[in-house]
Amino acid sequence: MHSLQAPSAVVMIRPHAFASNPETRDDNAFQTLANRSAEATSAAARDEHDRAVEQLRNAGVTVHVFDDFGDNDTPDSVFPNNWFSTHPGGHVAIYPMFVPSRRRERRMDVIKMLKRDYRVQDVIDYSGFEQDNLALEGTGAMVLDHVGRIAYTVKSNRADPVLLERFCTHFNYEPIAFEARDAQGRDVYHTNVLMGIGTHYALICLDMITDPERRATVKARLEESGRTVIDLTHAQIAEFAGNAIELTGRDGLVLALSSRALAALRPDQIDIIQDSATPLPLSVPTIETAGGSVRCMIAGIHLSRR
Questions:
Q1: pLDDT of 4-50, one tens digit each?
Q2: How far apart are the C-alpha atoms of 141 and 164, rounded to whole Å?
Q3: Is residue 13 a contact partner of residue 77, using CB atoms and an 8 Å limit?
Q4: DSSP 29-70
Q5: Quick one: pLDDT at residue 41?
Q6: CA gyration radius for the chain?
Q7: Ranges of H-type helices in the chain
């Protein structure tokens, strides 16, 4: 089965100099410090990445792996979904990033591979807006409903409203922006930590949306799209349960998420997912110290093969 929402091919970046990035620590409440040497941390992250790639390939997902040997001082490069996205019809977007080290993650060999192996009609590059200190961090900042053409976006310094409008105009999405805070009252920095959209269900912590009217709107729009809303708790979000991505594997839909995220879900929530998709838990505890989980590691390819 083919789903517009769930790509069957992805890009992942193999980290050789992974670290919890000091530049992003101010507004990423999910970040922690690994208490071991830089070399050991980096090696553990690389092992977790390699095992994740192997599990995805075993499930029938095509994974294009690119190495980052650390030459450009890019500690967060394992999270490529922030700097580019791909869209049905042959469209690619390249995004402006909030902090300098993340701007160095963009690499043209990934774009060249997409043009070589897939049908790419155009590449729209927004990265020049970094000169004005504006950011729109891809499918971290926006959670896209590819079927209903909606860009759900938490308001933050990682998602400039003018750029959001511009992206939505170019790519034909409707922006739905809202403010969101965690249980401690801290602003949420990326939308994909609190929600993930599958073909037949959506994972979201509605409680984090601060405005009751906006909360009702988001829930209604997800339900109008025919999806069952799986309402997550703050505690489940803290375990990265919202940071998941649905993919198309050999035997149908799979939901890639971290092992700790799956462990945080209740049996009734897992039942809803299993009605249409098979959970695929990936163990990435070291990578999660950088404040991102499985969704962040995977850039979906929504393009047709050449």
A1: 999 999 999 999 988 765 544 455 454 455 567 788 889 999 999 99
A2: 9
A3: yes
A4: TT----SS-HHHHHHHHHHHHHHHHHHHHHTT-EEEEEEE-S
A5: 86
A6: 18
A7: 38-58, 100-103, 108-117, 138-141, 161-171, 212-224, 234-238, 259-264, 267-274, 285-288, 294-297
d(CA 61, CA 46): 19
Give the dihedral sign, CA 156/162/167/169. Answer: positive
Q: What is the pLDDT of residues 103-125, one digit of tens each?
A: 999 999 999 999 999 999 999 99
Picking from 296, 224, 270, 211, the residue whose alpha carbon sits closest to that of residue 11 is 296
Instruction: Judge whether 297 and 261 are in contact, CB under 8 Å.
Output: no
- For residues 193 and 5, give the distance between their C-alpha atoms in angstroms, rounded to a whole number: 18
Residues whose CB falls within 8 Å of the CB of residue 113, separated by 6 or more in sequence, listed in order: 11, 64, 66
Angle among Cα 126, 114, 306 to the nearest 5 degrees reads: 135
The answer for 87, left when phi > 0, alpha when psi is -120 to 50, beta otherwise, is beta
Average pLDDT, the chain: 94
What's the mean pLDDT in 232-242? 97
| The pLDDT value given to residue 18 | 87
Number of CB atoms found within 10 A of residue 206's CB: 18
The Cα–Cα gap between 182 and 194 comes to: 9
- CA gap 292, 28 in Å, rounded: 9
Euclidean distance between CA atoms 128 and 135, whole angstroms: 10
Contact residues for 143 (Cβ-Cβ < 8 A; gap 6+): 151, 152, 153, 191, 192, 195, 196, 197
Could you read off the pLDDT of 164-192 as tens digits, one per residue? Answer: 999 999 999 999 999 999 999 999 999 99
pTM of the model: 0.95
